[in-house]
Amino acid sequence: MSKNKATIQSIADTLGVSVSTVSRVMNGVGKKYRISTKTIAAIHETAEKLNYTPNKIAKSLRLKKTFTIGVIIPDISNPWFSKITMRIEEESRKRGYSVFLCNSNGDITIERDALKLLENWSVDGIIIVPIGIEYKHLLALYKNGKPLVLVDRFFEDVELPYVSTDDKQGALEANELLINNGHTRIACIQGLRGTSQNTQRVNGYKEAHKKHGIQIDESFIVGSDFGYDNGYNEAKKILKNLKDTQITAIFSTGNQITLGVLKACKEENVKIPEELSLISFDENNYSELLYTPISTVSHIDDEIGNKAIELLFSQIDKNTIEESTNVLTPTHLIQRASVQKISS
Amino acid sequence: MSKNKATIQSIADTLGVSVSTVSRVMNGVGKKYRISTKTIAAIHETAEKLNYTPNKIAKSLRLKKTFTIGVIIPDISNPWFSKITMRIEEESRKRGYSVFLCNSNGDITIERDALKLLENWSVDGIIIVPIGIEYKHLLALYKNGKPLVLVDRFFEDVELPYVSTDDKQGALEANELLINNGHTRIACIQGLRGTSQNTQRVNGYKEAHKKHGIQIDESFIVGSDFGYDNGYNEAKKILKNLKDTQITAIFSTGNQITLGVLKACKEENVKIPEELSLISFDENNYSELLYTPISTVSHIDDEIGNKAIELLFSQIDKNTIEESTNVLTPTHLIQRASVQKISS
DNA sequence: GTGAAAGCGCTAACAA
DNA sequence: TTGTTAGCGCTTTCAC
User: Fold this and answer.
1) What is the secondary structure of B88-151 as a DSSP string?
2) A308 pLDDT exceeds 80?
C-alpha cells in the first residue's frame, strides 16, 4: 500500500488520458460527455488499483464550497445537546455534508474563536447553541452572508434565525401545575442569567404567579447556571431554610440542576414529594426511574434538530422563503409523582 | 461588510507589496525576514480593515496538513461517548486542531463511509470508537500511515493502537461482589456480540463463576446490543421466569441496558434489591439517584479521552516511542444498595 | 528586506 | 469524445 496518495493526475498518467477526463468520470458525468465506455471502465479500474480517493481539500478550494457545516455547542456531554448534535450530524450526512464540532464549554471566548475557526474553514453553514449573552460576532457573520441558525437560545429583536423551545409556555404550565396543587411558595432555580432560555423560563414562572394572583418573592429565584453544582448548592440553601421560607416546591430550569437538587434532597433527607414538590425542565430516559419519578417539561430534541437543519439548508440552498425563519417548538408536560397536592 | 472575503492577495494589492511579504507577516515570521516594522504594521492594519481571515482550505492544500482530527462514535447521545468526545475536542482545540465528528450509529456501513470521508478530508489523525465487528478498513488506513487510535473497543491480535477499559477485570469484580453476597444464579445481559467490550465483560462474568466453582448456565447470558430496548426486553423475559430460573441477580453490561432493566423491574413490580440484585457497567451522575441506587463499575472517561489524544498526537508528531501503544485503564467498583446479601 | 513564481489537487471554460 | 489550461488562496524556494 503506497503512502503517497493517488491523484487524478496519477490516474491520467498511467492511462495516458487527461485529468479532465478522469475528473469527469470520477464525478459521474462520463456519459454526459460521451466518454467511451471502455475509458470509463479503465479509469474506474485504475482508480481502484491505485487506491484513489478524491481530495476534498482541493475540491473545496476550487469550488469554494466545502460541504461541511459547523456546530458549536456549549456542552455536548449534556444529553439534550448531544441528542441534537446527533440529529444534526445524521441529517447532514444524508445530504452529503460533514460536521465540524466545537464545544464552547460555556465560554464566550471559546465561542468566538470557534466561530472564527469555522469561518476560516469556509464551512457552508453554522448551527450554534450560543452561550447566549452576546451576539455581535454571530450577527456579523450572518450579515456577511454565512448561513446560520441558532438553536435553543436566541436573542430577542436581533435578526438571527433560531429554532428553540417555547420555554415560557412550558415554564408557565409547569408552575401552574404546582399552583393548582396548592403551592404558592415556589422556589425557582435558574440557569445562566441573560440567556433567552433562562429568561423565558423564569418569565413563565413569574407569569404563572401573576395569573393566579400570587405575589412573587424575588428571593425565591436563585441560581446562576445550568450545571449540576448550581442545582446542588442552591437546593442545599433552600432546604436549610425550609422552615423560614415555607417553600413547598422547586421549579428547576434544567436537567442537570435537577440532578443536583435530588442529590441535595437525598443528603438532607427531605422527602419528595411529601416535604417538597419538584418539577423540572428537560425529560430524560431516566426521569421516571429516579428515586422519585420527576414531573418534567419535555421538549423534543429531534424536532428541534430537524428544524434547525431545515432552516440552515434553506439558507445554504438559497431556496429561502424569507418568512417565518424563527421556530418555537411546543413543550409537553409529563406528570409524575414528584408533585403533590397540598392544602394551602 | 463585504461579501467576498479578503485574501493575502487583496492585502498585498492595496498596499503595493507582494503576497509573500503578507504571508510572512500573517504567519508571524516578519521579524525573522527583517521586514520593516512599518510594513508589518501596515499589513496588520489593512488585514484588520479588510476583515481578513486566513483560508484554512488553501493553507491545508499547500501544507498537506489540515490541523484537523476525525472522530467516529457509534452514538454521541450516549453520555459515556459524549464525555469522551468532549475531552477529545477540548484537548484538540488546545493543540490547535479542530474536530470532524461522525456518528456511525452502530452501522458498519456508515462507519466505513465515515472513515473514507475523513480520509478524503485529509484529517491528520482519527480517533474511533469502532462498532467493533470489523477492522479491515481501519487497518488498511493505519498501515497506510494515517495516525489512528481506537477507543473503548479494540481487536485482539490486530496491530491497531487502542485505549480502553479493563473490562474483564471490572466485570470480574462486579460478579465477584454478587457471588460474595451469595448469588450463584446470575443473569448477564450483554451488549453487541463480537465487540471486544462485550466479550471482555462476558468473560469477566464467566471467570468470576469459574473462580468460585460455580457452573455457568449459558442460557443466563442473553441480549444482543447496548441499547435501552435490549435491556428492557431481556429483563422482561427474565422477570417472567424468575421462579423457574431461580435467578437472583442481573449483571448489566452497559448503562442504557441498565435503564431498560430498571424500567422492566418497575413495570413488573420486582423489588431491587429485595427480589433481585443488580450491578451495572458505567457510572453516571444519576446512578445514585435512581429508585434504587445502582452499584456500578465506573471507568473514567476523562482519562481514556486524554490517553487517546496523547496516543494520537504521538503518532501525528512522530515522536512515537513505539512501545506500549495499547492502554487499558482500570475500573472502579462503586457499591450501592442494588446488591443484597442472600442466604444461598 | 522584499518579490517572482511554482505548485498543492481539483474543476470547468474553452479548444479541438 | 477528449485535452489544455487557468486559477482557487496559500507557502516557500530562489533570486535580487
Assistant:
1) HHHHHHHTT-EEEEEE-TT-HHHHHHHHHHHHHTT-SEEEE---SS--HHHHHHHHTT--EEEE
2) yes
Is B103 an interface residue toward A (CB < 8 Å)? Answer: yes
Residue B257 touches chain A, beta carbons under 8 Å: no
A259 in B contact zone (CB under 8 Å): yes
- For A71, the 3-state DSSP assignment is strand
Dihedral of the alpha carbons of B330, B335, B341, B344, in degrees to the nearest 10: -20
Residue A1 has pLDDT above 50, yes or no: no
**Which of A241, A273, A286 is CA-nearest to residue A341?**
A273
Q: In this predicted structure, what is the pLDDT of residue A2?
A: 41
Q: Are strands B98-103 and A98-103 parallel, antiparallel or unpaired?
A: antiparallel
Does residue B54 belong to the interface with chain A, where contact is any CB pair within 8 Å? Answer: yes
Distances, alpha carbon B263 to alpha carbons A138, B178, B228, B229, B274, in Å? 43, 21, 9, 10, 16
Residue-range domains of chain A with CATH:
8-54 (1.10.260.40), 66-165+301-328 (3.40.50.2300), 167-299 (3.40.50.2300)
Task: Identify whether A273 is preceded by a cis peptide bond (ω within 30 of 0).
Answer: yes
Q: What is the pLDDT of residues A13-55, one digit of tens each?
A: 888 888 889 999 998 887 788 888 888 888 888 898 888 999 9
Interfacial B residues in 285-314 facing A (CB < 8 Å): 285-286, 288-291, 293
Look up the protein residue whose alpha carbon has the minimum distance to the C1' of D5. A20
Interchain contact B143–A (C-beta under 8 A): yes
| Angle of CA points A173, A179, A183, to nearest 5° | 140
Percentage of chain A surpassing pLDDT 70?
97
- Residue A30 is predicted with a pLDDT of 78
Confidence (pLDDT) at A300? 78
Residues of B within 8 A of A8 (CB-CB) are none
**Residue with CA nearest D11 C1'?**
B62
pTM of the predicted model as reported, rounded to 2 decimal places: 0.88
Q: Cβ contact (<8 Å) for A103 and B110?
A: no
Whether residue B147 is preceded by a cis peptide bond, meaning omega within 30 degrees of 0, is no
State residue B29's pLDDT score.
86
Compute the average pLDDT of residues A238-254.
96
A259: closest chain B residue by CA: B286
Nucleotide nearest A61, CA–C1', reads D8
Beta bridge partners of A108: none
Which nucleotides of strand D lie under 7 Å from a protein CB?
A: 1-5, 7-13
- Give the Cα separation of B133 and B106 in Å (integer): 10
Does B1 have pLDDT greater than 50? no
- The gap between A17 CA and C16 C1' (Å) is 15
User: Mean pLDDT score of chain A, rounded to an integer?
Assistant: 91
**At a CB cut-off of 8 Å and minimum separation 6, what does A98 contact?**
A67, A68, A69, A92, B100, B102, B117, B121
The answer, yes or no, to whether residue A172 has pLDDT greater than 90, is: yes
Q: What is the pLDDT of residue A291?
A: 96
